[in-house]
């Protein structure tokens, strides 16, 4: 921290005093039209923003480093700094510079930190993803095994809390994917922004929440654990500390009941790519693939639904019936979606109005959005089909807002300017006084034009013009070569400025007229500002009802969007109940199918039945055959069904899943010193300790990251544990076809394989899952498809032959490998193998008995080396 020197200039002293209030932030110090940064902050910002770093003046004998960004473009620079991991304190000028100049002595404009910008406290539209919530979360350790979790989105006012088992905290945070997490300082339970431990006191948290929401008890909001209250109170304290005086709108916290959503840990979310695709972006994810919403609020709600699939059969059924309602009436769905598509983001406009970072267009968004909401309610309240219960309840949450809508329509122009200081937001005829001020300003400008014409006539200088700028205001301007005629005293003009090409003058009459125009314009802007503030107050008076309306619109958008998806992509309504059934007919992977369609291909659908007598499937087959796709598609179908969506299948019956686990794919975690195999074992251990009989587990290639025998032993033991101990529904894919021998002992084990065919030495993937087991791994065939050089393949084939021959002999599996020729002397791979090619061409399902006899004779001749007849 830079010291405040007694000899420091007043401005630097002020800067350092403000910096001391937010030492962990970069300080944006407002100076006119720029935010300036000094000292170490300047160096950090210049490097992050790739802007010029300069030096001016001295402090403590050293040059002062500085850089700056223009105020009008500050949002773009803020976004880059926040993305780079910085926090930014905004120090604004809180008085008019003209007032500062009235004080005696050498004074500077008063400044204060008005806001601290952090990843979790963003509200600007330009800094947020429209279809993704920007959660700020707080974690509070509890007295026992349950911790408190609270989270809010300042851009919409949503506020939630939950009591979470210690072991489930990482999974809940992975679900929310918060932009920022606050934790008690000195606590190492979860990494995040440290805050004073006192702010996590349940007693102080309860008092803070009661004060914020003006209640004597929190019982009206639901039942909260002490740890929940601690987290919610700490979250509110942080919001108030960063927002300063402009505290944003927040709805009362809504507690979520433990077990109300399918538990999905971080590894499973990443494996299934629910919200983020392979590159870490939204593209390629399940969310992006199925999103047909037409509003930003609907997109955010869809993401929330997919992130937390329900476990209540009744709640799931309500959502499915709402989707079915829109599927059944295509015309109604089309009209509803057209209306929704025209709606602005009411929730975020309300958030900006509440926090004070708003403009006239946010009021217009309220007017237009609420008007369209009433129209949509009227459309959906009288449908051709009887409305389902959830639609009736949702429409009931769309308020009338008649008085507010009327007031906004009467006051605002159709398309207000972005900035209130531009004027022109209030309609003519709304306020007679404002109209008079505008007339005065407009007439004054007409008078300027008349004065210009008169001066041209009186002086004879036809090139004379009356101009305006921010320094001189209204002034008379002529070319320098014509200025002499205006310098004479009898012209009554006052010389103001001589430049290279022009000379500028003023006059008593022009000054008086300018004063009249400026006063009328200033008074008009002040009158407009007062009207806009009044309209804002009207909106905020109905903030909670408007929030419910916005939530209702989002729910309708999600249902109509899922119905559009179901109708266009032939998805079906799943049957979801309290059993442990899992029966999918002709299921498809929603993301892969979309990609296949783009390539004009045809996705191969597959069945999956995890009934009690076959609840554990062992799926074998080579790499690239589609095992992982099959595993993932069934997990995704379960997520979609319990989120309240139709599913990509011919039919689906799913008993509610309490926990979903996916151990698919290979990845390391070098930051924690974990190898790929270690990560695999950690994730497998979590499954074995957390899954219940109501869970769904998908496991792919357990044990592949170690030696063959170790890997087979681990896979064998895990398969037994899933069957005997967990007794859950499970898809277990493996290259170890030796595991098929367990079928005779594990009564609920079903073996399946992915069909492949060898054709002329190549492996053809049919992507069809059938009963049975693979007879080999086809590793060399896949290596050939991948382009591994022929000498390497020949060497591998020879080694494989020797390994298989030595498998059951004494001396070990690798005995005799030293006798094999190396690459340089290995026989080249044959150009073709007629016998194999002939065998691969046989269609065993279509051959007749007579053709089979002829074929045996042909194969005998081919095996003896007589290939001429072929």
Put the structure in a nutshell.
This protein is α/β, with parallel strands linked by helices and 870 residues long. The protein is built from 28 helices and 27 strands.
> What is the overall shape?
elongated
- What value does the average pLDDT take? 88
Estimated radius of gyration: 36 Å
For the biggest sheet, the summary is: 7 strands, mixed
Percentage of β-strand residues: 15-25%
Count the beta strands.
27
Structural class: alpha/beta
Helix content: 40-55%
Count of separate DSSP helical elements: 28
Q: Pick out the low-confidence regions.
A: 823-829
Within the largest sheet, what's the order of strands? Answer: 13-23-24-25-21-26-27
N- and C-termini, Cα separation = 88 Å
Explain what this protein looks like in three dimensions.
The strands form five sheets. Strands 13-23-24-25-21-26-27 form a seven-stranded mixed β-sheet, with helices on both faces. The protein contains 28 helices and 27 strands. The longest helix is centred in the middle third of the chain and has 34 residues, at 508-541. A hairpin with a 4-residue loop joins β8 and β9 (158-165). α11 (313-328) packs across α20, α13 (346-355) packs antiparallel against α14 (360-381) and α14 crosses α16. The protein starts with 9 loop residues before the first helix and ends in a 7-residue tail after the last helix. The protein has 870 residues and is of the alpha/beta class.
């Amino acid at each position: 921290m830079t010291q405040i020197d007694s000899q420091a200039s007043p401005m630097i002293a002020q800067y350092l005093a403000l910096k001391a209030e937010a030492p962990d932030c970069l300080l944006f110090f407002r100076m006119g039209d720029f935010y300036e940064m000094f000292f170490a902050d300047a160096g950090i910002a210049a490097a992050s923003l790739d802007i010029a770093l300069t030096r001016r003046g001295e402090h403590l004998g050293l040059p002062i480093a500085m850089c700056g960004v223009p105020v009008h473009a500050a949002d773009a620079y803020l976004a880059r700094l926040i993305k780079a991991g910085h926090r930014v304190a905004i120090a604004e000028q809180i008085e008019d510079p003209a007032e500062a100049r009235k004080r005696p002595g050498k004074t500077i404009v008063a400044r204060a930190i008005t806001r601290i910008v952090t990843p979790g406290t963003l509200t600007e539209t330009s800094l947020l993803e429209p279809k993704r919530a920007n959660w700020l979360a707080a974690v509070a350790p509890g007295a026992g095994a349950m911790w408190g979790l609270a989270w809010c989105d300042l851009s919409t006012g949503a506020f939630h809390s939950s009591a979470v088992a210690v072991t489930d905290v990482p999974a809940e945070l992975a679900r929310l994917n918060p932009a920022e997490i606050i934790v008690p300082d000195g606590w190492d339970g979860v990494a995040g922004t440290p805050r004073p431990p006192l702010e996590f006191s349940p007693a102080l948290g309860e008092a803070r929440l009661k004060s914020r929401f003006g209640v004597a008890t929190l019982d009206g909001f639901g039942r909260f654990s002490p740890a929940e209250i601690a987290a919610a109170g700490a979250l509110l304290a942080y919001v108030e500390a960063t927002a300063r005086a402009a505290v944003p709108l927040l709805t009362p916290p809504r507690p979520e009941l433990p077990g109300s959503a399918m538990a999905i840990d971080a590894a499973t979310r990443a494996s299934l790519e629910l919200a983020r695709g392979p590159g870490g972006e939204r593209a390629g994810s399940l969310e992006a693939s199925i999103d047909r919403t037409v509003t930003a609020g609907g997109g955010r709600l869809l993401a929330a639904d997919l992130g937390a699939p329900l476990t209540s059969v009744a709640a799931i059924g309500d959502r499915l019936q709402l989707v079915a309602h829109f599927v059944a009436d295509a015309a109604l769905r089309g009209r509803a979606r057209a209306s929704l598509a025209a709606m602005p983001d009411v929730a975020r406009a309300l958030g900006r109005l509440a926090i004070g970072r708003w403009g006239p267009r946010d009021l217009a968004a309220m007017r237009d959005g609420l008007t369209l909401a009433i129209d949509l309610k009227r459309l959906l309240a009288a449908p051709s089909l009887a409305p389902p219960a959830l639609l009736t309840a949702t429409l009931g949450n769309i308020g009338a807002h008649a008085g507010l809508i009327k007031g906004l329509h009467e006051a605002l122009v159709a398309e207000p300017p972005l900035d209130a200081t531009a004027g022109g937001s209030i309609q003519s005829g709304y306020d007679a006084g404002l109209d008079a001020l505008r007339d005065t300003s407009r007439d004054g400008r007409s008078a300027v034009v008349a004065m210009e014409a008169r001066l041209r006539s009186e002086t004879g200088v036809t090139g004379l013009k009356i101009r305006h700028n921010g320094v001189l205001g209204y002034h008379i301007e002529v070319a320098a070569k014509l200025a002499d005629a205006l310098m004479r005293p009898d012209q009554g003009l006052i010389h103001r400025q001589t430049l290279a090409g022009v000379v500028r003058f003023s006059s008593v009459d022009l000054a008086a007229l300018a004063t009249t125009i400026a006063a009328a314009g200033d008074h008009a802007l002040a009158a407009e500002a007062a009207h806009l503030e009044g309209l804002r107050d009207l909106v905020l008076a109905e903030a909670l009802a408007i929030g419910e309306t916005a939530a209702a619109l989002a729910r309708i958008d999600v249902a109509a969007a899922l119905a559009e998806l179901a109708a266009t992509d032939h998805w079906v309504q799943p049957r979801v109940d309290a059993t442990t059934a899992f029966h999918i007919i002709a299921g498809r992977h929603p993301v892969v199918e979309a990609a296949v369609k783009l390539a004009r291909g045809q996705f191969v659908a597959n069945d999956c039945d995890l009934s009690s007598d076959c609840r554990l499937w062992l799926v074998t087959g080579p790499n690239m055959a589609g095992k992982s796709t099959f595993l993932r598609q069934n997990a995704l179908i379960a997520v979609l069904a319990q989120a309240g969506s139709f599913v990509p299948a011919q039919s689906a019956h799913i008993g509610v899943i309490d926990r979903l686990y996916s151990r698919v794919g290979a990845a390391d975690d070098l930051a924690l010193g974990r190898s790929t195999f270690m990560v695999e074992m950690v994730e497998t251990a979590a499954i074995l300790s957390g899954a219940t009989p109501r869970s769904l587990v998908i496991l792919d290639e357990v044990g592949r990251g170690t030696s063959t025998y170790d890997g087979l032993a681990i896979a064998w033991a895990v398969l037994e544990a899933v069957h005997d101990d967990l007794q859950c529904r499970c898809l277990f894919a493996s290259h170890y076809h030796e595991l098929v021998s367990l079928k005779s002992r594990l009564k609920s084990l079903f073996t399946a394989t992915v069909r492949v065919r060898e054709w002329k030495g190549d492996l053809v993937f049919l992507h069809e899952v059938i009963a049975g087991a693979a007879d080999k791994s086809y590793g060399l065939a896949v290596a050939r498809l991948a382009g591994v050089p022929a000498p390497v393949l020949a060497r591998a084939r020879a080694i494989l032959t020797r390994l298989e021959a030595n498998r059951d002999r004494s001396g070990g599996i690798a005995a005799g490998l030293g006798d094999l020729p190396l690459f340089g002397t290995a026989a080249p791979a044959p150009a073709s193998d007629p016998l194999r090619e002939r065998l691969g061409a046989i269609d065993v399902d279509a051959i007749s008995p007579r053709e089979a006899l002829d074929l045996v004779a042909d194969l005998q001749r081919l095996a003896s080396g007589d290939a001429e007849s072929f």
